[in-house]
Design brief:
CATH superfamily: Farnesyl Diphosphate Synthase
CATH topology: Farnesyl Diphosphate Synthase
Radius of gyration: 19 Å
Distance between the termini: 28 Å
Helix content: over 70%
Strand content: under 5%
Number of domains: 1
CATH architecture: Orthogonal Bundle
Order of helices and strands: HHHHEEHHHHHHHHHH
Number of helices: 14
CATH class: Mainly Alpha
Number of strands: 2
Shape: globular
Structural class: mainly alpha
Length: 301
């Protein structure tokens, strides 16, 4: 199937919609909690590709006809979760990074305590956005509950957080490939999987469609991590918006360590080809998902 989507234009249009919505989520003005809001806004509105919320929107649009207004709170919830994870990842007790998206990390600007609390607040805000009362959303309560469940599973102990634990435990250890795959299946893959499944649920995907979308998400989740690993070795600080080569410095094993840089790139391309094949039975409405898969492996940051 030939795709007719200009993915760069599509990404920019959807990113602007997500960014505009995010600016309305956080209070803007002086009040009792203003230092907290400043810290939250700094990271939440500090740039980013918005891949996860865009995946939610694109997936919902591939199977249904919900308005963007209906989708944005749920898409934004994914970005809140992702941003909180970055704020906490950057802390000295975790990865101890000084830069993120070309700027000082949150704790370097607001202090470690405020960064921890800003991350906590962003995490809980995600569930606030997904559990709006019927007067504020047209999404039925049954679908809201399903979405909240998917978000909790993708982000929690058997998802992203569980993967982060495995990642920390594996630093400076000679782990095998199966362990590396497990780390990234949870740390990176589960939230991407949640983003796609949430979009499918909101859009009213059939059981068969949701199954194929889930497999698509698992393939692009692996490709996303492989691309990150390669970029960490080959990118520059200007391209990445943060220091390069940090994985090796921390004693972390990555896909290039097992396959070499070119071998890892080939593996990533195989994942993308497989992901696109998962959408074989979907019509042109899934073209953004097809193009998003290709973008994930070709991105420079």
């Amino acid at each position: 199937m030939t795709c007719s989507v200009d993915i760069q234009a599509y990404l920019e249009q959807q990113r602007q919609k997500v960014d505009h919505f995010l600016t309305t989520v956080l209070p803007d003005g002086q009040n009792l909690h203003e230092p907290l809001y400043q810290s939250m806004r700094y990271s939440l509105l500090g740039g980013g590709k918005r891949v996860r919320p865009i995946l939610t929107i694109a997936t919902a649009e591939s199977v249904g006809s919900l308005s963007i207004e209906d989708l944005l709170p749920f898409a934004a919830a994914l970005e809140c979760i992702h941003t909180y994870s970055l704020v906490h990842d950057d802390l000295p007790v975790m990865d101890n990074d000084d830069f993120r998206r070309g700027r000082l990390t949150n704790h370097k600007v607001f202090g470690e305590s405020m960064a921890v609390l800003a991350g906590d607040a962003l995490l809980t805000m995600a569930f606030e956005l997904c559990s709006q009362p019927p007067s504020k959303t047209t999404i039925g309560l049954d679908r809201q509950v399903q979405v909240i469940y998917e978000l909790a599973v993708g982000a929690g102990h058997d998802g992203m957080v569980g993967g982060q634990v495995l990642d920390i435990q594996s630093e400076n250890k000679d782990i095998d490939l199966l362990t590396l795959q497990a780390i990234h299946n949870y740390k990176t893959g589960r939230l991407i999987r949640a983003a796609v499944r949430i979009g499918g649920i909101l859009g009213g995907a059939t059981t068969s469609q949701l199954d194929q979308l889930t497999k698509y998400a698992e393939d692009i989740g692996l490709a996303f991590q492989i691309a990150d690993d390669v970029l960490n070795m080959t990118g520059t600080r200007e391209e990445l918006g943060k220091d390069a080569g940090t994985d090796a410095e921390r004693g972390k094993k990555t896909y290039p360590a097992f396959y070499g840089i070119e071998g890892a790139r080939t593996l990533g391309e195989q994942c993308i080809n497989r992901a696109i094949q998962r959408l074989e039975d979907f019509d042109h409405r899934a073209d953004p998902l097809r193009e998003l898969a290709a973008f994930i492996i070709s991105r420079k940051n």
